[in-house]
Amino acid sequence: MSRETAIERAVRGWDDGSFIKDLTRRVAYHTESQIKESRPYLTTYLTEEIGPTLKAMGYQTQVFDNPEPAGGPFLVGKRVEDPKLPTVLTYGHGDVIRGLESQWRAGLDPWVLKQEGERYYGRGTADNKAQHSINIAALRTVIEERGKLGFNSTFLVETSEEIGSPGLEAFCRKEKALLKSDMLIGSDGPRLAPERPTIFMGTRGALNFELAVELREGGHHSGNWGGLLANPGIILAHALATIVDRNGKVLVRDIVPAHIPNSVRSALADIELPNLPEGPEIDAYWGEPGLSAAEKVFAWNTFEILAFRTGNPENPVNAVPPWARAHCQIRYTIDRDPDTFLPALRRHLDAHGFQNVTVAATRLTMFKATRLDPDHPCAQWAAKSLERTTGQKPAVLPNLGGSLPNDVFSDLLGLPTIWVPHSYASCSQHAPNEHVLAPLLREGLAIMTGVFWDMGEAPPKF
Questions:
Q1: Using an 8 Å Cβ cutoff, are 155 and 136 in contact?
Q2: Which residue, of 29, 184, 265, 414, has the fewest CB within 10 Å?
Q3: Using CA atoms, how far apart are residues 178 and 99, in angstroms rounded to an integer?
Q4: Residue ranges with strand state E in 106-196
Q5: Does residue 398 register a pLDDT over 60?
Q6: Residue 274's pLDDT is what?
Q7: What would the DSSP string read from start to end of 198-246?
Q8: Mapping DSSP to helix (H, G, I), strand (E, B) and coil, where does residue 38 land?
């Protein structure tokens, strides 16, 4: 019985096909949280698949209704070995993006796991069924090898993450005592690069809003009125150009960090963003001058125009349009308060003479920004565990560039949060042909078994 034999046991579970057998069953559940007809699968995934698996591992499980009507149910599994031991909360989500069956490549079905070379195709493979399946398998491996975990474990699975996790905050607030833990260890999102193990300790937040210019009722003939009527599309384009310059630098400095903390800058010093074969080539000139590519994504705020509309793009007519709208987004770190962003934009537009451009929140913050300092003992402990298992220094990201409901765990439950992803950026997450890479799954089983073994043997200082 040792760490090494536990990892060997975990890898055998990959080599003998046991893990893929489990994943095949889980992918077959049509857990599309955006589709009303698929909602029953959200419940059966928990009651028929995840619940029985955890019960067989000595967990007591319970399925809870979501306090929000729009959201799906939650499952909580608890294994308490000794109240004096630390408790680790592990999170995953069982819901997936729409299957989009007709858009998958010939020979692929989103609900049938299929191997082609090193790729396993299926909806939810990358996001998030394979990832939480790895963590379940790793916990089971430690129990089988050691006879116990050596710590208390709470496993939370939600079924509404793909629609913004409605009800998660309310549920965790209500069940705070049930979920009381010392640390969160979860898996979601991509590695920095397929070949480099990665941990991240938080996420950037996202604020969506609309800038609009509405001048009059209806369009007017551009031959008769062009040059006499102000064009809202042109006005809005000029307004946007005062917010971000032609090279992507944000000019409204009140919505970007005043500086990058030294611990964050140090953690990112050895992080190089790869140009992935199936991804777009990075535009080196774009964004905040003087920052590395990693700092631009993981330590800075960005202003994005997600959509711009004026007139009738599908069928243009010879008319001066009456309105123009831009759907925009700010991705932000914890270094700025998002409640100040829209007022700052309002002040900026007024100062530049654009009083006729309105600023209105649309979909409010999807998930708030969070970050655990890279110098935190839990972050240092996790990095050492991954390096011990893989033999290479992992990429340590203070926060992911994207978003997750991590604020519920870090802010509401007050936990240090460690995320160990088992996917990669070109996995076609949220798109047709979603897939995972076999080497990442196999290594992921070894990594997480090592992490959970270390938690029972020498946990970090909380």
A1: yes
A2: 414
A3: 34
A4: 114-116, 119-121, 152-158, 183-186
A5: yes
A6: 82
A7: EEE--B-EEEEEEEEEE-SSS-EEHHHHBTTB--HHHHHHHHHHHHB-T
A8: helix
